[in-house]
């Protein structure tokens, strides 16, 4: 995450994603989270850098973990446009780390206070991370068990052909069987890899598969730091002896001596039962949250109701185009508005296929019109969306005045069904 935050700064994404836009899409219930201005945003990222270093070195570890969790999560909640599954993963993993006794050896905290050293911690601390990683993989596999992915090789047969210029494997990217092979292997990999990592006999081979899989996706698709986050996180499945071997090998490159754990010092926490209860509730939420889509009618990838926070990774190619029809009921005047006049290209792209973002943009337009002196404007959206290469279809009911609708967790009945012609 230290590398990721620095990468964010050096690529100029603080300006393009948080400072330049005149409007930010909020998560429902978190509308109060706003950008903090130029100084505030750079301060937040500086906090993340300092906190990440504190976690790495074990300097005021718990405080560093808490600061990183709060700063990172705040930044990610500023604009829904930037939602990615692995950002959510980082936030919840950072939350878990606040409760981890991860500074009980091989840390500056231990150098300064040898009383906190420990050779053993309860296995539950490791298990909660392993189970979370397993949920991410397994649910990503379950999400692939649908017709588009398995029987149509979508969206891979759309995404792979542009990579025909790659050396050696490039010509294969245009072959239909390769798209099917990638689709089926991806589903089998996600469904099986947690069990293979838990099994000591298959763990090494599984980890090699993890590296191969994530490096392949990194080379083919623009998914940022996610492959490296997953590869490094997966090392938690290896035993302490394996980690000591790696640390001693690394230390041998820069000096002499070996790293060893203190002997027979058990970690104890008087709040242990409360921590186990928290972990239990946390994991239960992670198990149940991806299934909330069942409470909504319609095709999930079309409506996207219950789509986020469910580990559905790279499963659809979706594009949309929106025109907003405005009417002043007092004068009777009618005209059109376009998102490109108000949003960044990334915001416009994301908004044009996601109903809750469209509704937020309508509310933004309404406030802008009221500020211009137009009382109670009517705003209707004419939106066309293409899903996984399908023909462009009308997405929302163009007769509905969206300015009169308030967002909620209930079903958005103004989304037209996917089968609508």
Write up what this structure looks like.
The structure is a single chain. The chain has 421 residues and is α+β, with helices and mostly antiparallel strands. 51% of the residues lie in helices and 6% in strands. It is built from 17 helices and four strands. Strands 2-1-3-4 form a four-stranded antiparallel β-sheet. Strand 3 and strand 4 (393-394) form a beta hairpin. The protein is globular, with a radius of gyration of 24 Å. The two termini are 46 Å apart. The model has no long low-confidence stretch (mean pLDDT 93).
Low-pLDDT regions? none
As laid out across the biggest beta sheet, the strand order is: 2-1-3-4
Coarse shape: globular
Overall number of strands: 4
Mean pLDDT: 93
- β-strand amount: 5-15%
What is the H/E string? Answer: HHHHHHHHHHHHHHHEEHHEE
Structural class, from secondary structure content? alpha+beta
| Residues in helix, % | 40-55%
Distance between the termini: 46 Å
What's the alpha carbon Rg, rounded to whole Å? 24 Å
Largest sheet: 4 strands, antiparallel
Helix tally equals 17
Features:
421 residues, 17 helices, 51% helix
Write the layout of secondary structure elements.
Blueprint: H1 2-10, H2 13-19, H3 37-57, H4 61-78, H5 85-98, H6 108-112, H7 123-143, H8 147-151, H9 156-159, H10 176-198, H11 203-220, H12 226-233, H13 240-254, H14 272-288, H15 300-303, E1 318-327, E2 334-337, H16 345-351, H17 355-371, E3 378-387, E4 393-394
Helix pairs in contact: 1-3, 2-3, 3-4, 4-5, 7-10, 7-14, 10-11, 11-12
